[in-house]
User: Fold these one by one.
Assistant:
Number 1:
Amino acid sequence: MLSGKDVNVGDIVKMKKAHPCGSDEWEITRTGMDFGMKCCGCGHFVMLARTKFEKAAKAVVKSAEAEK
């Protein structure tokens, strides 16, 4: 389980379940009580509550701060 505080806007996160397009990686576009995420495979945008995000997220694949 990944804490929501460990994630920043621009990070790429690996989720436990794959999106129907086959990709399990998502780009974080918004943080707070809800998380905005864009699928890296098809570009679909999803809003997810913090509690559901923390249960579904597996790991941070690529950190936005590491790119700076």
Number 2:
Amino acid sequence: MGFVLAATYDRPNCSGIACPFTFPALELKANSGDVFVWPPDATPPNVTYNASGGYFVFLSDYFVPLQEFYLKVSGRAGFNVSGKLTIFPRREFREIEATYINGTLQVGDALYRRNIRGILVENGTRIREMAVYDDPATYKEFKYCTEHYEEIVKACRASGSPEYQLPLGLGLMLAGIALFAYGMKF
């Protein structure tokens, strides 16, 4: 019995689990005032950073032409949906989260069936943080993986043999050998 337990012990290799990483097409970081644009040859937005208020001010209209996207914005901004998703200045602070894929734009709980050409941020809009990803499926996979990483690793480890199986098998084998040797003496 101990030999069977030791021989069938299977420890899964969970060391290779990694979340796919995705770069945003546009990112504004309020804590540092950094602007990140991908690809590097893309035109960056014309913004100024107000360090005391912790927000970016768009000094001109900025258009991001994308076929599909995931967008997360926080700031004094509202949105309008026409042939593009327009982010415009507002007095109230709000967070906007939008996903556009396969002709469907989802902003919060609202769904819009429209052909969207991209995202337009209007002149004067104040943004605290903004991230735009040009591949929403990859971003959502990355987000899910990072949020549930510990659960994924735990499930991987549970897919193999229990941790106690190998020591139990070896212990039973030694006990069997000891009993056999003891029985051979008498």
Number 3:
Amino acid sequence: MDAADKRMLDREALRNMIQQWNANRLDLFELSEPNENLEFHGVMRFYFQDSGQKIATKCIRVASDATVSDVIETLIEKFRPDMRMLSLGSYSLWETHGPDDERRLEPHEKPLLVQLNWHADDREGRFLLKCLTNNEGSLNTVNEKADQNFKRKLSKREKKELKKKEKLSRLKSDTNDENRPVAEKLYTELPETSFTRSISNPEAVMRRRRQQKLERKLQQFRSKDGGPDTGGTLKIYGSSLCPDVPYKTLLLSVGDTAAGVLREMLDKYGLARHDPHHYCVVQVDTTDNSEYILEDDECPLAIVMTHPHRSE
């Protein structure tokens, strides 16, 4: 296959992915057809919370080759036009998939491609612009110096009122609400029912798709001739990964290997980018509590179905 044929196949695959994306999106958020260089564009929604303010949201048109640095520069002009002269290093862009699942994007990453890959994984997320707090001090210093002349002209009564307002502002910033992670506020102040990219609630759409996919997979595992089922659910314990979520239930076939199960578990615990070689699946014999580390090609569900009362 020559380079031209490969590019044509890549373009067709990209076109199909974009068509699937557009099928569940409002017209405003539809992506364009890819050109011969596999470039396309679309409108994306971004969120930002300034100090002491409610979360704001803006929509901008983004090209597929636009990097995080390019997007941040545009977002600063949209959210904070008075901050355009500040260094881009003062801001970062994050993708979030819930209050406890967020990742900082690298400057070279391309947000529109990141977003399109969510659809391929049946996920939904949001983009959040954050101001790095370690730069806030220098910004406040600049503002204070700029206002020094003005403050010296205030009367005693005006100074007293100003101090009172500053004190109230500090007390307000110390409340639990202000100390909550911004990603958590993003999903509480702007819940799933808010206007988003999807024709209907995007998170609910993705949950329904995952449920339908699981039901189809389970139907394939069920025996049609009275023989043993070829798959089922298996509870995998992972309290060492997250004590608050002691286990996850996976839908597996008897041929699914420990290596595949491990990757799926890391994904479910939000650790998909971690190296699987640093983790293992352990079989525990409940009769004597002995442990055995499964090899990558061993099949956990097949083991449990063979010894249902001894393994977990």
